[in-house]
Amino acid sequence: MELSQKSLEALNLQVKIEADASHQYLATAAWLENQPGLDGVTEFFYKQSQEEREHMTRFMHYIAMRKGKAIIPALAQPKTEFANLKEVFQLFLNNEQEVTKSINQWVGLALNEGDYIKFQFWQWYLKEQLEEENQASKMLNELSMIGDNRAALYSFDKDIMNVREKVAEDTSAELNHK
Ligand SMILES: [Fe+2]
Ligand SMILES: [Fe+2]
Q1: 139 CA from centroid of ligand 2 (Å)
Q2: What CATH code would you report for 5-175?
């Protein structure tokens, strides 16, 4: 089944969205790396940037497999300065919510076109979005509770990669009724 023009445009727009997300998280990691004592959070955003890049290349491979041409876009200028950690995670959450909206829309398009192969492909992304939104909200909640408590912030930073994995596993388990 050939990709419709509309589908190809949707997939290529998503290539750009993932590329912009990857670039934003890289800029976030660069800012974090200059802050004292935030090694864990820095690692988190470097890893997040890498993952978004993988999301992008996954779309590119998929487009090629469906005999379309992937287009590599110019990137948007990322935000490079932050007032505090809360702002960092708020941007992460807002960005992921926007990405989810966009993916939801494409899932609707795939269903409308009766392209169930593509529908299945998109579903993986919906799960991924749920994981990332859950991670962002959990971390924002924790930061609200931490406030100005430096000892708690120290633990937050030390623990963030474990929390990341745990939220991802819990989300998958919920979706698979495990
Ligand atoms: Fe992504
Ligand atoms: Fe993401």
Answers
A1: 15
A2: 1.20.1260.10
